[in-house]
Amino acid sequence: MGQVAVDVVLLPDEAMTSRAIEINRQLATSTRPEIVLNRKDCLPHISLAMGGINEADVTALRERLKSLARKTSVGQLRVVGIVASVNSRGETTFLLDVDRTEELQALHEQVMQEVRPFFRPEVSEDMLYDEVVTGSTLDWIRTYPQKAAYEHFRPHITLGDGQMPPDLSVPIPFHVTRLALCHLGNHCTCRRILAAVDL
Question: Do 44 and 160 contact (CB within 8 A), yes or no?
Fold first, then answer.
């Protein structure tokens, strides 16, 4: 067994999954968009922790997620808007901005504590699902604890690149249904579920 780059994520309910996929389609202005959300191998999600692990540790991590799921309730979440994020290549990616509730922040911090012992010190291109991986993807995974965790945690659902989507009527309430460990692909997409527990 080798090593894989992973994301511990919350998977939204069916209605929000459909909404994210629909907006992703509206964004796409090229014939080959780099992020094509779907229910099979590019899942809409909220990231809670990223890093590299040994594949042999997936079973142990599943048990940690089960334990967290039993004692965690994030309740109803809300999309509060669409925001634009510019990556290191100067490209704009649109995100559904999710309200950072106390419960969601607490779960994020608990996940970070639980997975820290399993995370490897380095993440390389061959650990990702996709064969072609941008430098910005690797940078994001490698620096997640410093730049996107704890006080820097900004929950969101990545929509993709393209033209600004139509205005949303916000807030949009939704629930999350599963806590999952996913194999990361290019642009930090969730390409394959390695383990998941119901919430």
Answer: no
Q: Measuring CA to CA, which residue among 25, 56, 54 is closest to residue 38?
A: 25
> In 3D, which of 16, 34, 51, 79 has the Cα closest to residue 144?
51
| Amino acid at the residue 99 | D
Cis upstream peptide for 171 (omega within 30°): yes
Would you state the structure tokens that stand for residue 65, as one six-digit string?
């997620």
Q: Where are the domains of the chain?
A: 3-198
On average, the pLDDT of the chain sits at: 93
* pLDDT tens per residue, range 115-132: 999 999 899 999 999 999
Question: Sheet containing 77-86: which strands, arranged edge to edge?
Answer: 156-161, 92-98, 77-86, 172-174
Cα distance between residue 22 and residue 38, in whole Å: 9
Q: Does domain 3-198 have CATH number 3.90.1140.10?
A: yes
